[in-house]
Specification:
31% strand, 248 residues, Phospholipid scramblase, 4 helices
Length: 248
């Protein structure tokens, strides 16, 4: 894991300040985008944004049709930095039949674009099982950046009652572990997935499902997540952690 340039934190939760970018002018819909960073050698195009942040906030957008009819529509998300500036926009790609028949287990592609409209990250999730009764067919997600170039994988680990995942690089070498809680439903509290070193002795980051209020939790399936990682973590692994959040 040392090849990916992060310093594991033996105690507590990784910190690090956010490099404050200059504010952009808002777009026609009022969205303020994070300023475009300069290109960086050996960095996949579009991932330069991730070199400047140690937190990503993911907000699922409300779909009125889905709320009113219960008809499952394509999920769309805003990815923002700690200042509330949009870093990326994500949209699910699949068909109507798959969404409404397979539910949350459905396969999908996720197109993540930057503020120039470039597709900078592609997530590919095939149709798989999530039960420990089928250990040979557990969840797996491939992360590509740029599209067509694999930078890593997120694979579910077989466990009787805990949600556990492994973050791997493009060669399927284990880089990080993700451990979730025993109870996935907690009223009025965030649900945290701890990102650990491979030997699970050091905290490296966290993926959290944010509590959004009783009404939203009951009547919609709209979720908000937060991702924290070391500022100096390799941008490819930051992209894979974003993929892990969507898989979770």
């Amino acid at each position: 894991a040392g090849n990916y340039g992060f310093q594991a934190q033996p105690m507590g939760f990784p910190g690090g300040s956010v490099v404050p970018p200059v504010q952009n002018q808002p777009t026609m819909d009022g969205t303020i985008w994070m300023p475009i960073p300069p290109s960086i050698p050996n960095c996949p195009p579009g991932l330069e944004y991730l070199t400047q942040i140690d937190k990503v906030l993911i907000h699922q957008l409300f779909e009125v049709l889905e709320i009113v009819t219960g008809f499952e529509t394509k999920n769309k998300y805003e990815l923002k930095n700690a200042l509330g500036q949009r870093v990326y926009f994500a949209e699910e790609v699949n068909d109507c039949l798959t969404r409404n028949c397979c539910g949350s287990a459905r396969p999908f592609s996720m197109r993540i674009t930057d503020n120039l409209g470039r597709e900078v990250i592609t997530l590919q999730r095939p149709l798989r099982c999530s039960s420990c009764c089928c250990p040979c067919c557990l969840q797996e997600l491939e992360v590509q950046s740029p599209p067509g170039t694999t930078v890593g994988y997120v694979v579910q680990n077989c466990h009787v009652y805990l949600p556990k995942f492994t973050i791997q690089d493009e060669k399927k070498t284990n880089i990080l572990k993700i451990n979730g809680p025993c109870f996935m439903c907690q009223c009025c509290e965030d649900i945290n997935f701890e990102v650990m070193s491979v030997d699970e002795t050091c905290a490296v980051g966290r993926i959290s499902k944010k509590w959004t209020g009783l009404a939203q939790e009951i009547f919609t399936d709209t979720d908000n997540f937060g991702i924290s990682f070391p500022m100096d973590l390799d941008v490819r692994m930051k992209a894979v952690m974003i993929g892990a959040c969507f898989l979770i």
